[in-house]
């Protein structure tokens, strides 16, 4: 039995079915240390993620995308509103959610293999089963020749694949990806996108992908959510209508240009607005 | 010029020089001593002297001998101090130790192996006819460390030296003092390098003459001298007075003349601690030509 | 890498040869420095005769005890200080200026506290070396990328497991750097204290030889210390580099 | 751009060290009370002694003596250290060969070399300064070299594209770029060269704080020892605090991401 | 007199005119320290940059793009072949070339203003003239409000604009840009691209732009050079035929999708080829 078979559930559902995750009136304020001032980073957001859909989020830098992901992952509670996963309110990190962060999160002191097996070991799964799942995930991510390597010996893109594999073997029902290919050049990103699509098709998990790249958003997703400058709101949610067996070749499709053009139109004003205020950034 | 005196400011070896500086005796003798370099004693003093522009100073006899043995080009040009009277052995006031004999089978703190403190202790034992091997000597690293060991009960008695023993006299009881027990011996000598002795005999003569005036002033008016020493040493005047007066009787400071008997006594002492195996050939080490005519003869 | 080490060795050897030559030609006085060949001879005498075995053993034991104490206590203190913002703000200004105060002068205080024995020496050495470990521990904990801690949360690890399985290995190279410095400072602390203060150990043996003009013995002992410290240092340095290279991303 | 420090922020930086100092003083008092016959001087006695010391001209002679040696040692350590660091960084192969030697020297117990220093420099100021430099020079050299070798290559490439001369590159790119590291190096060199000078004074000297401290040790005068210790600690903490905030200000301004 | 007027020369020429820069049979080998092995990083390349054209280069990571730029800038000599600028062989950095590097090269110890003036001061130009040029460049790059700020207080995009301004004030006749917007998200990149186009139109300088982004290459350039995996060769040079008053809105143009599709087609195989060997990368 492969990971795929185990992870597979029913095919994507109609909107009527209960959503995988849902946000209602969610906002997030950050408090500055010392002063009483708060920063309104996000929301209010209303969003239902459909079971098994591929949803991508684009928006200007600093608009609250990572904050949104934090709320969904249960890493930080919403300031207002409610977030729920599979019908249950999110308090703490729920079971069944996997996250791939923007930064390289591979453990430098473990081999690729040990990195991928890390979560499984914690979950108390039998060794035989661990081996099988790690084997599958390592192969799937094209890391077979590097099983015994340490992250320092890999390129940035390969390390990010290690992180994806590590998340994947835990068979999450909701996968949250925060700009996972940020370190790669565009060509490699497109190819990694193909792998991500293949993965999504095989596991049938619900995927939320945060990205800066319009191509990526447009090419990969069933729906693209376009966010405004901070405080982030969804100013548009676009249904792409791509077939589920799509791959990166659709960038050559004229409808693809149309799609990115449409997203770009929406974003342009927001980005311009944002750039004027980005001088003394928070970091 | 700057000269070096061992234990300057900490012990009374340098008292004549202090007095001579205060009274302007060196200037009278034809040399201007502007500063004195002190040191922890021992070989450091000798090295300091060798490294100076005017390589003259007063050092422990043992250090001078050690330097000469290692082939350093030094000569002894006058004798300095001639007693170990400032040394004593103390214990806690409530201790059962009343005499040296009570120490048999006990532990005693000395400063370090082959040091003056050990030598004096062994000479005291020899004077009393006690077998030194029956008393365990512990090296503490220093006089105050020895006292701490004593207070903590790690040893039954500890060697001590003035002026420290005057400062702490209320806290400890003296088991035995070297004063009165041990005879005179040459504990420090004035040295210079052979080259300098050839090049600048006038300066050396002036230094010895100035120092001699200081010695004479001490014996003439001990109290006034002690104030001068206190000033030069940056020492408490009361303390200086007690310490100086204690050393008048044993005639601590020599005017400069050598005494074969006193030299050989220190030689025997050094043999006792194993520092040397045979008495040195004093004749080869000593150059009496800088001493005033009346002090040239052996005394 | 290997090549460079060889060149370094060659440079050192060239310096030694130059010194040997200078001594042989009488450019430097024998009373100042003796030729390296004699230092080596003296060192082998020292090792063969066993005259200093006790002192060597004592010094090494003290160094080892000091290393163990400062690494263990330094680690614990570093973790504690890291955990508390208040402690951290309180301690940081002092850590920066710590080395300027010669710890040695407090020796009399330590002998009052610990007695006249190795404990006081060890206390000085620990005082000197523990700071390196504290600083390295704090530094290591600081530099754990937050994303690793977030990953631990996503995997729902308990705080203890997070500490053991994420924080410890992630900061381990920094801890090792601290440990390495602790070893160096323990050597410095023990030998310097012996040299200045005590009546025992290798440091004292050098001071004694110096005082008694036994240059041959003094340089033999100095050579012994230089060689010992160099070997220890090089070994730890190599390990350190290996660990650090894992962190290189 | 010095950011406006709110009073609250300043307090948060100043209060904790003071609280810690008070706690330490309390512990000290506790030790004083706990040891028999007050073998350890009390904070009050130490303070009294310090006041007496600071009232005496002799003490200030010591301070001037130590200060002079220290100033020489520090200035020479900085100038030579930075110069050597720049040379070792720019002549890369030489630097790579010399680095292990310097690192080893740094971790040597340098007191053991003191006899050698005395034999070479003789006694007094030169030996003290030399000993201070032996402690302070190497860390400054290593930190300078490190800072330059880790300089982003793109700065040098930019300078090259602007066709600057080698001298101009060092003057207007390399040195300004490593100023924060230089200040950090100077901070460490500061501490260590002071330590070196004091240790130097502890052996053979007629004046200076190190000499006075050793003298007091010989006499078992704990009041004076502690007073000198406190005086040195205060000086070191204040001077280092100044350097530290300078370093922070520079880093803050130029923290390149 | 503005920078623009001073820098402006004749309008873009036909191919018959002497090229701005030209490479003939240029290759570049890197020698590994220690061993005698060499790495063939680039070429042989034959390329003429036309006077006043906007040429962009895309290619898989590590294919030698930066190496190509180094040769053109005179930062490293070709191993074989000849490189010339304005008819003269390149030996050392020639006068009249400006470079903006991939990494942030703003000097963190100088204010924005001082950064921009840096090169001018070294060139010994009078203070009044410096002030005028800096003023113009700072305004042009939208940095007027940040003249007195330090780079640390700016966002990555603004820092890159500082670097561009610093190069611009020296009025180079050939501007080489090595992935200047690598640190930015795609939306901001597109907007920076518009500014770059404006700059190019005003100064009439010849521009060579290295980029990972196909959109960027296709939208900005007169010609796009597509490079093969290492050793880098031009496998295709595509004339876009865009009007010179183009801007980022052409991403919505169907011909734009067609263009990127064509470039992508060329690159896909190359990138795949490259990914298989990128494991233990040189860095
Ligand atoms: N811990 C925090 N404390 C205070 N402010 C924060 C914190 N984390 C984020 N912010 C602020 O909240 C806003 C949203 O941040 P967030 O990281 O969610 O943006 P983002 O859309 O993910 O940006 P990017 O695209 O650059 O990753 C930003 O203005 C940021 O400065
Ligand atoms: N100084 C050097 N020494 C040895 N090899 C080098 C050196 N610089 C670059 N290389 C190698 O030459 C090849 C081309 O490098 P280059 O930096 O030109 O690629 P690139 O196309 O700019 O890559 P990227 O898109 O990642 O910036 C790479 O394989 C690289 O590892
Ligand atoms: Mg983010
Ligand atoms: Mg490149």
Automatic annotation (TrEMBL), chains A, E:
Q: Which InterPro entries match?
A: AAA+_ATPase (IPR003593), ABC_transporter-like_ATP-bd (IPR003439), ABC_transporter-like_CS (IPR017871), ABC_transporter_ATP-bind (IPR050166), P-loop_NTPase (IPR027417)
Q: Where is the ABC transporter domain?
A: 21-254
Any idea which UniProt keywords this protein has?
ATP-binding, Nucleotide-binding, Transport
**Domain of life of the organism in this record?**
Bacteria
What would you give as a GO molecular function for this chain, any one?
Answer: ATP binding
- SMART domains, alphabetically? AAA (SM00382)
Q: Which family does it belong to?
A: Belongs to the ABC transporter superfamily.
Q: Per its UniProt record, what PANTHER family does this chain match?
A: ALIPHATIC SULFONATES IMPORT ATP-BINDING PROTEIN SSUB, TAURINE IMPORT ATP-BINDING PROTEIN-RELATED
Protein name per Swiss-Prot or TrEMBL: Nitrate/sulfonate/bicarbonate ABC transporter ATP-binding protein
The source organism is: Bosea vaviloviae
UniProtKB/TrEMBL annotation, chain C:
A GO cellular component annotation here is:
plasma membrane
Domain ABC transmembrane type-1: where?
A: 52-240
Q: Which UniProt keywords apply?
A: Cell membrane, Membrane, Transmembrane, Transmembrane helix, Transport
| Protein name per its UniProtKB record | Nitrate ABC transporter permease
| Organism of this sequence | Bosea vaviloviae
Annotated TM spans: 55-83, 95-114, 120-141, 218-236
> Superkingdom of the source?
Bacteria
| Localization per Swiss-Prot or TrEMBL | Cell membrane
Query: What InterPro entries does this protein's entry cite?
Result: MetI-like (IPR000515), MetI-like_sf (IPR035906)
Q: Which family does it belong to?
A: Belongs to the binding-protein-dependent transport system permease family.
Automatic annotation (TrEMBL), chain D:
Cite the entry's keywords alphabetically: Cell membrane, Membrane, Transmembrane, Transmembrane helix, Transport
Entry's SUPFAM superfamilies? MetI-like
Q: Where are the transmembrane segments?
A: 70-91, 103-123, 129-148, 169-199, 225-246
GO BP terms: transmembrane transport
Please give the InterPro entries that the UniProt record associates with this protein: MetI-like, MetI-like_sf
GO cellular component annotations, sorted alphabetically?
plasma membrane
Describe the location of the ABC transmembrane type-1 domain by residue ranges.
63-243
Recorded topology in the membrane: Multi-pass membrane protein
Gene3D superfamilies according to UniProt:
MetI-like (1.10.3720.10)
Q: Where in the cell is it found?
A: Cell membrane
The record's family statement is: Belongs to the binding-protein-dependent transport system permease family.
> What protein name applies here?
Nitrate ABC transporter permease
Give the organism, scientific name. Bosea vaviloviae
């Amino acid at each position: 039995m492969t990971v795929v078979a185990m992870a597979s559930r029913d095919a994507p559902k109609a909107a009527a079915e209960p959503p995988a995750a849902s946000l209602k009136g969610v906002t997030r304020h950050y408090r500055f240390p010392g002063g009483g001032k708060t920063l309104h980073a996000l929301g209010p957001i209303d969003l239902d993620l459909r079971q098994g859909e591929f949803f991508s989020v684009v928006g200007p830098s600093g608009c609250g995308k990572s904050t949104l992901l934090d709320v969904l992952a249960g890493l930080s509670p919403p300031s207002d509103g409610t977030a729920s996963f599979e019908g249950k309110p999110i308090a703490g990190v729920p079971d069944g959610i996997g996250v791939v962060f923007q930064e390289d999160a591979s453990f430098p002191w473990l081999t690729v293999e040990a990195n991928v097996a890390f979560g499984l070991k914690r979950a108390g799964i039998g060794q035989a089963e661990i081996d099988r799942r790690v084997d599958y995930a390592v192969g799937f991510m094209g890391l077979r020749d590097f099983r015994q390597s340490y992250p320092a010996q890999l390129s940035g893109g390969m390390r990010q694949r290690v992180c994806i594999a590590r998340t994947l073997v835990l068979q999450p029902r909701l996968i949250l990806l925060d700009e996972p290919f940020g370190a790669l050049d565009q060509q490699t990103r497109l190819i990694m996108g193909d792998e991500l699509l293949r993965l999504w098709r095989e596991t049938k998990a619900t995927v939320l992908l945060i990205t800066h790249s319009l191509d990526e958003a447009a090419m990969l997703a069933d729906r693209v959510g376009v966010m405004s400058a901070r405080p982030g709101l969804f100013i548009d949610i676009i249904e792409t209508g791509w077939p589920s067996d799509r791959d990166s070749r659709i960038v050559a499709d004229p409808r693809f240009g149309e799609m990115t053009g449409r997203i770009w139109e929406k974003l342009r004003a927001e980005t311009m607005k944002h750039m004027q205020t980005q001088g003394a950034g928070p970091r | 010029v700057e000269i070096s005196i061992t234990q300057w400011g900490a012990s009374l070896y340098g008292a004549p020089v202090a007095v001579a500086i205060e009274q302007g005796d060196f200037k009278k003798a034809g040399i201007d001593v502007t500063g004195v370099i002190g040191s922890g004693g021992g070989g450091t003093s000798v090295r300091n002297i060798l490294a100076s522009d005017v390589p003259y100073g007063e050092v422990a006899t043992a250090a001078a001998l050690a330097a000469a043995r290692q082939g350093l080009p030094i000569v002894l040009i006058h004798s300095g101090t001639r007693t170990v009277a400032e040394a004593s052995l103390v214990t806690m006031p409530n201790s059962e130790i009343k005499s040296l004999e009570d120490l048999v089978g006990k532990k005693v703190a000395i400063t370090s192996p082959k040091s003056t403190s050990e030598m004096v202790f062994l000479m005291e034992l020899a004077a009393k006819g006690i077998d030194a091997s029956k008393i365990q000597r512990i090296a503490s690293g220093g006089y105050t460390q020895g006292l701490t060991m004593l207070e903590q009960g790690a040893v039954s008695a500890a060697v001590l030296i003035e002026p420290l023993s005057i400062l702490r006299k209320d806290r400890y009881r003296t088991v035995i003092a070297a004063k009165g027990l041990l005879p005179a011996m040459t504990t420090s000598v004035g040295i210079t390098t052979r080259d300098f002795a050839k090049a600048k005999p006038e300066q050396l003569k002036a230094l010895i003459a100035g120092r001699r005036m200081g010695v004479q002033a001490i014996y003439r008016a001990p109290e006034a001298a002690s104030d001068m020493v206190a000033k030069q040493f940056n020492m408490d005047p009361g303390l200086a007075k007690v310490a100086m007066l204690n050393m008048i009787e044993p005639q601590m400071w020599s005017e400069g003349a050598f005494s074969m008997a006193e030299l050989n006594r220190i030689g025997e002492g050094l043999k006792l601690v194993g520092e040397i195996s045979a008495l040195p050939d004093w004749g080869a080490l000593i150059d009496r030509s800088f001493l005033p005519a009346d002090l040239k003869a052996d005394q | 890498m290997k090549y460079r080490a060889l060149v370094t060795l060659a440079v050192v050897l060239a310096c030694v040869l130059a010194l040997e030559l200078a001594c042989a030609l009488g450019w430097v006085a024998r009373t100042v420095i003796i030729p390296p060949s004699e230092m080596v001879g003296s060192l082998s005498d020292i090792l063969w005769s066993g005259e200093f075995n006790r002192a060597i053993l004592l010094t090494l034991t003290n160094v080892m005890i000091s290393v163990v104490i400062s690494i263990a206590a330094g680690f614990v203190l570093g973790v504690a200080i890291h955990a508390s913002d208040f402690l951290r703000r309180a301690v940081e200004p002092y850590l920066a200026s710590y080395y300027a105060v010669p710890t040695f002068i407090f020796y009399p205080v330590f002998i009052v506290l610990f007695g006249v024995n190795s404990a006081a020496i060890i206390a000085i050495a620990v005082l000197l070396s523990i700071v390196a470990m504290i600083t390295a521990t704090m530094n290591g904990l600081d530099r754990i990328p937050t994303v690793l801690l977030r990953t631990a949360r996503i995997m729902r690890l308990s705080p203890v497991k997070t500490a053991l399985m994420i924080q410890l290995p992630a900061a381990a190279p920094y801890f090792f750097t601290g440990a390495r410095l602790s070893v160096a400072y323990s050597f410095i602390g023990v030998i310097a204290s012996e040299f200045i203060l005590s009546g025992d150990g290798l440091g004292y043996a050098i001071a004694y030889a110096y005082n008694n003009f036994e240059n041959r013995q003094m340089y033999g002992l100095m050579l012994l210390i230089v060689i010992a410290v160099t070997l220890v240092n090089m070994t730890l340095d190599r390990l350190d580099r290996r660990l650090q290279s894992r962190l290189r991303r | 751009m010095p950011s406006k420090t709110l009073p609250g922020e300043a307090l948060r930086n100043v209060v904790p060290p003071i609280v810690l100092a008070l706690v330490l003083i309390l512990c000290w008092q506790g030790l004083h009370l706990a040891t028999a016959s007050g073998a350890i001087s009390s904070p009050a006695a130490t303070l009294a002694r310090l006041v007496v010391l600071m009232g005496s001209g002799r003490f200030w002679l010591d301070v001037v003596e130590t200060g002079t040696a220290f100033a020489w040692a520090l200035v020479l350590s900085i100038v030579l250290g930075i110069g050597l660091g720049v040379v070792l960084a720019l002549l890369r192969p030489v630097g790579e060969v010399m680095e292990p030697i310097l690192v080893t020297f740094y971790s040597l117990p340098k007191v053991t070399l003191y006899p050698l220093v005395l034999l070479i420099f003789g006694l007094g100021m030169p030996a003290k300064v030399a000993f201070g430099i032996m402690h302070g020079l190497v860390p400054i050299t290593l930190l300078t070299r490190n800072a330059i070798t880790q300089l982003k290559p793109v700065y040098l490439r930019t300078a090259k594209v602007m066709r600057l001369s080698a001298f101009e590159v060092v003057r207007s790119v390399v040195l300004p770029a490593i100023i924060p590291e230089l200040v950090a190096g100077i901070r460490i060199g500061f501490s260590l060269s002071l330590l070196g000078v004091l240790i130097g004074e502890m052996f053979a000297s007629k004046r200076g704080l190190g000499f006075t401290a050793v003298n007091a040790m010989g006499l078992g005068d704990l009041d004076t020892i502690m007073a000198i210790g406190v005086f040195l600690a205060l000086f070191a903490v204040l001077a280092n605090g100044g350097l530290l905030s300078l370093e922070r200000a520079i880093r803050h301004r130029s923290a390149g991401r």
